[in-house]
Design brief:
homodimer; 201 residues
């Protein structure tokens, strides 16, 4: 078994959303799976001296234009949410609770969180929104919220985030490892595809 | 005549160097020319709150890895210069002096400046380096240096830079306009190619 691609993302990241819509198909073309790993991207800002893209003068405006253009190229629905960025720890903890039971279901949940935010403009920090999303996947919403407030899953998310940033050098979203090779950004997905075709270069 | 692509870059920018090696061929595939426009990228840092990529923790290390990988993919020679970034106004002013006489020769000079810095590791702030580069293109090095210190070309570079940043919203290198559509980054060159093929989307 070749190891899966490791896909780090934050639920508040527009480029993470675009990558979430494309990465499984790219990996599948090369008989590879994908390990989905939401983490708390905001924690990197302190370390890198960065801030959310949309907060930069000039770059912010360009980015909002580019999010929509990048999505449109691939036929991915996208609408810039009114509230952006937002805190994503509840959704991410719920993801890991699901992931420990059923990674496919966790991925479906992640996709539905992303769509809720970047297509329907819903507030994914709102517990009621998350329970509705859970319900449509036949997940018990009350249990999901309880898990998201449970120390076990708080610690899990913290451990993933600390490892990503402190050990693996992850600083953006999406951030993908292919056999240890790091790729930052949705604009690297085509490069990942070529990297997998050529076996690197 | 369809208007040329407008290619903004800074001589100190590794991704600008990669774009300089690819953009003419991409444009030519679509029967388009390219207007080369060196500008002073550093002036955008104050406005965007940014800094040179290599100065960021984590992102800096990744970027140095990615410069080489991005160049290697396209068979472009690349060696990270020991002194980086550096000030590029002398080379840029000399470019515009040449450009007013012969845009093809100015482009050849730009390519030789980029190669001197990113292949041979030469200090392109050094007048002796620039006169040697000029000489190999049969350009009078003494006249080139005199032009680079002449107020006319100082003002020209300032005007290009002010217009790029203040009017057109340019904030990075490379930064390309295709019929007014902005594309930031060497990783957008393939998107530019597809954009030209599809006539936008």
């Amino acid at each position: 078994m070749t190891p899966p691609l490791e896909f780090y993302f934050d639920f508040s990241s527009p480029y993470g959303y675009i990558a979430a819509n494309r990465i499984d198909a790219i990996a599948a073309r090369h008989d590879r799976g994908v390990s989905w790993r939401p983490y708390l991207f905001g924690a990197t800002f302190k370390l890198t001296g960065g801030q959310p893209l949309v907060a930069y003068p000039m770059k912010g405006q360009y980015s909002i234009h580019d999010f929509a253009r990048s999505a449109r190229e691939h036929g991915i629905p996208f609408s810039m949410p009114a509230i952006h960025p937002l805190a994503t720890q509840t959704a991410a903890r719920a993801f890991y609770w699901l992931d420990a039971q059923d990674s496919g279901l966790a991925r479906d949940f992640a996709k539905s969180v992303y769509s809720a935010y970047f297509v329907d403009g819903l507030d994914i920090t709102d517990p009621a929104v998350l329970t509705t999303l859970a319900g449509s996947l036949h997940i018990d919403g009350a249990r999901l919220l309880a898990a998201a407030n449970d120390d076990v899953w708080k610690q899990k998310l913290r451990a993933v985030t600390d490892d990503a940033i402190g050990v693996r050098g992850v600083f953006g979203s999406p951030f993908v490892f292919v056999d240890g090779e790091p790729f930052w950004g949705a604009d690297r997905l085509d490069m990942i595809d070529r990297w997998l075709s050529r076996g690197g270069w």
